[in-house]
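> tool_call: predict_assembly(chains=two)
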Amino acid sequence: MTPVLSLKNLTKRFGPVLAADDISLDLMHGEVLALLGENGAGKTTLMNMLFGQYVPDAGSVEVFDAGQPRTLPAGNAQAAIDARIGMVHQHFTLAENLSVLDSVVLGAEPLWSFRRALSPARTRLTDLMTRSGLTVPLDAKISALTVGERQRVEILKALYRDVRVLVLDEPTAVLTPQEADGLFAALRTMVADGLSVIFISHKLREVLAFSDRIMVLRHGKAVGEMPTAEADAARIIRMMVGEDHKMPDRSPGTPGDLRLHLQNLSTSGTRPLRNVTLDAHGGQIIGIAGVSGNGQTTLAQVISGLEQPSAGSLSIQGQTIDRLTPKSALAHKIGRIPEDRHHDGIVPALTVAENLVLERLDDSDVQHFGFLRKSGIAENAARLSSAYDVRGPGIAARAALLSGGNIQKLILARVIEAAPDVILANQPTRGLDFRAAAEISRRLIEARDRGAAVILISEDLDEVLALSDRIFVMHDGHCLETDSRDRTDIGYAMAGEAA
Amino acid sequence: MIDILQIFLSESFWAASLRIASPLIFGVLGALLCERSGVLNLGIEGIFVVGAMTGWMAVWLGAGLWGGVLAAALAGALFGLLHAILTVPFGLSQHVSGLGITLFATSVASFTYRTALPDVTSPPRIEPFRAMDIPILSDLPFLGPVLFQQTPMTVLALVLVLVVWWVMDRSALGVAIKAVGDNPDAVNAQGLSVVGLRMGAVVAGSALMALGGAFLTMSAFDAFFFGMVNGRGWICIALVIFASWQPGKALLGALLFGMFDALQVRLQTEAGSFIPGQVFLMIPYILSIVALVIAARRADYPRALLTPWRKGQR
């Protein structure tokens, strides 16, 4: 076991917040280290210091050349690249107007040469693809690739530069279970060839299945470290959140009246729905699994009244609706938690208090003869932000200043307080940490028990399995119910293949 | 109708089209370089004026014609550098900075002119670039007068189309410029300098724009007049959209505009006083708007155009 990388006592402070507090870790040759922690635990800060994006306040990064430690200059990304450290960010850093080949070669070839040496690059990349099993069409434009393919390009970019340490930030967030398995198999091959991997994840299952060693961060501190062989899930979660973590209790729901019914509904346009039939009853959570881009967004838009079906019918409480608009969706008591919470869920320039009344501006406590009632709005905000634990700089601050989890709680408060009959929750916990996600899940179950029909669209299969009374799988615009609760079966359905 | 056909068949029409297109070719190539890197340069109109003034004045001061071209390019690069500093590292609004550069550069050009020549009523004339006379080539039927009896600056414009095409389509530098205009984070993650690439592209593009101005005083005319740029810079901003940021199409767009302009002059003389001359003056602009409306629907904007980049922010 020879070390390849060593982080020594790294500390980083942002104003009053200690984002990374004296963290040290060693990475061995050919090892897979999983970095676990809630959002804000310091994982990204730590990796940004390793990668030279941030200058640490204290501590250093050492790499080992032939067994001899060498300290990297602080805050120098190029030094990290030169030391053969590669990073695949959660949000891909790809220019969509380049070909795959250009994307990989960019920065690895001299900028000022008269002719580009593309054919050796092509040969080398083809060879890399065969060895790693990560194949992508080399001449395709990035814009034409699927998310999974883009991720392969990101990894190939690092491998092309002959990295010895690869850092992966939430690599499976956007993949089907099969794609994720393929990715891990490819990484295994490369690790056997001597690559060392640090991988950041929320998903315990993956961490337990794939890593050699686990390190848990909480509030900027390394709170635990163990070989994966000795790890157990309950103990890790306890370390991450600092307390016993309980998945919300879910007793089976009691199906009530038919609330929302889609019959053979299709749309035209991009990512269309194809002949979707779906019935949502009160007192049930309907989980819709699938890889993003298979029509979930369109489905959500149809139910929110943002897109009109080209065929089929939509009925609410047994009444067929000819043309659903966002306004009539609200009037029909459909509550919406949109996918892009920053963009569609709030108006960032308005205050927290104003955002909380956005969907009921006509109510008498909000306005009076066309004038806003500041006191009513403030009272409402004070009550909801304490009931839903919306934390931030206060109800009079712009909503843009809230963190993602708190924005989501704000939206949830607005939706649930309107006592909707149908709740459309599109990716409600994406990017949230355990605690915030558990809180959102608990509220959804509460709303269900109150008698609402909840439609939960999620990429996170574990979440769908944990919360849903019935499960539908979307693929290529089709939406079919499955009776199976087996990850493999559902994974195949997500990929469009019969099990 | 026969008359119009004759216009299209005449050598002088095509020669004039290319001549009128020349300053636009410089300008649209410059705008293309800037915008491909993600920076809109609305300073173009003012940089044209500065290029026109500097080139002409350098020649008048005895720098020689090519010395004048160089001086114009340097002056353009300088104003480009100012725009680049304001918009790239400082991340200011590209619209505001660009319009400011246009106002500033136009005023600096007038100020310099007035200070250097306080007493003149009409500007002193210089000996401009002459039409080339290349043995054999210039005597070719049709092609000779159209291509090889132009001034050297027109040839320079055509060569620059090739150079810019090569850089954008065949070189690693071009890949990096295209990438920085699409997603600067991608460029940064690959260890290249976003700021360096963008500033370089803006400075080089602005130098090209200034050459467009210099063409006016050193090739098309022989002196500097106020108002002689007359919106050519703005035309280039539109043409680069028409060209969908591709050098080949940029040449085509400039030629198209040159053709419309050459055509309207000839139609004016054909029509005599029957139709007001202003109607014909409108033709190139109206046709350009039509062409733009058609082409812009499919325009493939650089995704990061107008978006300042700050390290470590999404």
